[in-house]
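Researcher: Sequence recovery benchmark, item below. Answer with residues only.
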């Protein structure tokens, strides 16, 4: 079975690339004939256009021999870019798996597009044979656009087999970790405000910010908060594991979020997670049981939740332990690979 998979370049800093890399690292490419085509790299608009054009030509060459085409996309330009690949695969009569990664698709579809644009999106989505979405709430949303029978809930997964036994590491609950795109929509302003107030209350606290700067001004803002915040760069692999094992708390106060793979990565490492009650996050976190949910854009609520964990390490440890158990049970990339192969097989046997 040959699967032609399309998504952002695997070196791009972002959630979809992280998901694809997890699938590769867990051995998907060893079980099927898998070819991956990256349609986007970070850089100027011109460079992105060149990359997309070259990717499409490569896609057309590989398409005739493919049994299944698996397309990863989010919203806005990501969806527009992938629409050309979807239409080409449909024209060739290929089986198509659409893999939607949430993001701001609700705003994109409901507010940024007119009636004609929404109809165009609907037509493209209906070219798929199976549509994978991250959570039940996303299934409910897309059921208003396409036939519900083609939609499957397919949450992101992380490698759980052989994962380091993080209980061997001493957690520091005065250290709060943020990992992701550094921009307003990720709630960085609220997080800095909350941690500054905690610091000024006399508590020992340190915010470690990892990621890439997507908006101007945040590098200077974090640097000026040096007494309680530190930029650690983009971290991955063993370095990321080290921070996840060391930091007792992970904060993700996003304005919107498709799923937030960093949430389950932190839970797997027994970190207590404080995250916004947006997108697919409430499907992952049971508030007060395996993490804490706060309203988006509410620095005071964020501060209060962080203080609870800093002051009550027993509670933080309990949330972390429950979080790890949930990830092992529900968010295993090894199980995701089994499901993907079953989906591919069912499509090619029709």
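Model:
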């Amino acid at each position: 079975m040959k699967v032609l998979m399309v998504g952002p370049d695997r070196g791009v800093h972002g959630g979809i690339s992280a998901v694809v890399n997890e699938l590769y690292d867990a051995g998907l490419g060893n079980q099927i004939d898998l070819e991956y085509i990256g349609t986007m790299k970070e850089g100027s608009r011109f460079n992105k256009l060149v990359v997309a054009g070259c990717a499409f030509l490569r896609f057309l060459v590989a398409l005739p021999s493919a049994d299944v085409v698996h397309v990863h996309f989010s919203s806005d330009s990501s969806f527009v870019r992938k629409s050309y690949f979807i239409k080409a695969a449909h024209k060739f009569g290929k089986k198509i798996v659409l893999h939607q990664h949430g993001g701001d698709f609700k705003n994109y579809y409901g507010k940024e597009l007119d009636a004609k644009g929404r109809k165009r999106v609907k037509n493209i989505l209906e070219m798929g044979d199976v549509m994978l979405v991250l959570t039940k709430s996303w299934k409910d949303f897309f059921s208003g656009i396409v036939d519900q029978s083609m939609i499957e809930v397919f949450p992101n997964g992380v490698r759980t087999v052989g994962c380091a036994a993080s209980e061997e590491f001493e957690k520091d609950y005065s250290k709060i970790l943020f990992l992701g795109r550094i921009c307003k929509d990720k709630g960085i302003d609220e997080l800095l405000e909350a941690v500054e107030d905690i610091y000024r209350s006399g508590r020992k606290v340190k915010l470690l910010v990892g990621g890439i700067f997507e908006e101007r001004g945040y590098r200077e803002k974090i640097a000026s908060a040096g007494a309680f915040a530190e930029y650690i760069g983009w971290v991955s692999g063993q370095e990321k594991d080290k921070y996840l094992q060391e930091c007792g708390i992970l904060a993700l106060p996003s304005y919107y979020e498709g799923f937030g793979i960093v949430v389950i990565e932190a839970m797997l490492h027994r970190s207590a997670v404080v995250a916004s009650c947006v997108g697919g996050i409430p499907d992952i976190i049971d508030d007060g049981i395996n993490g804490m949910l706060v309203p988006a854009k509410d620095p005071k609520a964020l501060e209060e939740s962080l203080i609870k964990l800093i002051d009550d390490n027993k509670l933080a440890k309990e949330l972390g332990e429950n979080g790890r158990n949930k990830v092992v049970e529900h968010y295993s990339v090894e199980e995701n690979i089994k499901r993907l192969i079953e989906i591919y097989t069912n499509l090619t046997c029709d």
